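thread from #wetlab-drylab

HS: before we spend reagent money on co-crystallization trials with FE2/S2 (inorganic) cluster, can we at least see a predicted complex? here's what I'd submit
DV: go for it
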Amino acid sequence: MAAVRVTFHPDRVSTEAASGASVLEAASRAGLNLHAPCGGQGRCGKCAVRFLSGAPAPSERERHFFSEEELEEGWRLACQARLEENAEVLLPPGAVMVEHRIMVEGVGREILVEPCVRKVPLKLPAPTGDDARADLMRVLQALGPGVRPAPHPRLLQALPSALRDQDFEITATLFGDELTAVEPGDQSARVYGAAVDVGTTTVVAYLCDLATGDLLATESALNPQARLGADVISRLRIATGEEEGLARLHQAAIQVVGDLVTAAAKQAGATPKDVYEVAVVGNTCMTHLLLGIPPLGMRAVPFTPGFRFAQRVRAEELGIHIHPEAQVYVAPNIGGFVGADTVGVILASELGEGDGLRMAVDIGTNGEIVLAKDGKLYACSTAAGPAFEGARIGQGMRAAEGAIDSVEIGEDVSYHVLGGVPPSGICGSGLVDAVAGMVRCNLVDPGGRLRPAEELGSVPAGLRQRVVGEGAEARFVLASAEEAAGGEPICVTARDVRELQLAKGAILAGITMLLTRLGHEPADLEELLLAGAFGNYIRRESAIEIGLIPALPEDRVRPIGNAAGVGARLMLSSQSLRRRAEEAARRVEHIELSQEEGFYDRFAEGMALRRYE
Ligand code: FES
């Protein structure tokens, strides 16, 4: 096949290509990665380039995207125009993607950075007698066809002085193909975004450089809504039943998100005005409260959310004071109790991308479970209650300084305390360890009963002495009064064991129901991913020993950290991954467990403290 030579301007990069190759292919041969959002299918019209010479006849698709005048000027779609002879092609500003790949920790995934927000530096000719184009036209033409101005007056109000301030050198900010802001000079290096995970308990903000995808700063805080209501259910009640309840919860969420983004920007040496986009994940209730949407349908079966699809709102309108044109992107929800945070987990863990049977479980007050089978996705939620967060446990506490977070029980008891201080309570991972050890050493039977003294004959003396009280008052001492911070022994009570059984019964029932529905046994799982902080800290063997998760070989159970937050970062940094997340959220089949036959039997069965094969 004959070869043609093509030269790309303004950088004068030349290459040879086979006659009939597309401009997109030739550019890639020359090492230029052109922006081609629809993958070169001629559908999006965003790969516009301008032939200075050697233009082929326009195709029907190109006629659809360009005016007669633009075609005459040489504008074509890089993915559609076929090179027939030697050609000179001008690439408009922003046409070449600056190739940055980032590794995102926790998921080991390398991604191409292609954020929604782009800054394009432009050096424009000043008006002359022969060139008296309007300011806006001057900028739009330099950016190429397909770019349209934002439909608000602020852009036009800023434009004339921005152009003249630094001799027609400006930076244009584009959201997709919409020109939303201009500023004088080359400001293209200052473009930041924040990914935010709004959890019921904790809110985390990650500040990223949108041009490189680099994570620059992380800030977190307790969700201030907790002062109004501890869990999702109480917040739903306040939002829908109390006067001003929704407004107060909404305000608290806005305040903490704004504060964290500001603090993260400061930590990274930037200002809030440099932040152009915030991508948010959170459970369905949290995303509703953040947007001020009354979660009325979520109070009772069938738990209908107010919205499922992704939302985009101006930050200013919400009261988040960052760049005046910044947008807040809220990831899609799946159902009333399976929210955008689960979509983040799906994206980060690549569930549903490929064959096989894989599952992700986010163990928390509300356990979210996603099963992927040969590219199809199924999700459910299960109300585990707050035991894993240390609530409703006699001496339970969050995983903070002073919490016993791991326990070993053998001939005697040893434990680890967060912060290396005397213990003041026990957190979820410590409780799981303790109960697993108590079952292993016959201190507790599989039904959850603390065995009375007369049944402890075979138990080592060091452990026997730690059992005090009887019946409902029976308890097992982990740390003596002398060892503990408050001068009170730290114990696991019969009631604590019961609370843990209820929580873990709910999680195991969710896991097994979902598997059974698709005709599978736990042993068929190729991988079980544990998302979230709790999943990260619990000891796998202990979780398996008490049947919180099925008994799988250790190499098939993998903690993946804060996958929801990682998912938010991916959605912030990559438009195609954002689309992938939206598409995944649309195709997940949401299963309402409480409506499934046999769920309560499973739940009761799941409470047994034994391995579940
Ligand atoms: S890449 Fe979409 S039209 Fe060319």
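DV: The chain is about 30% helix and 25% strand.
HS: ok that's useful, forwarding to the group
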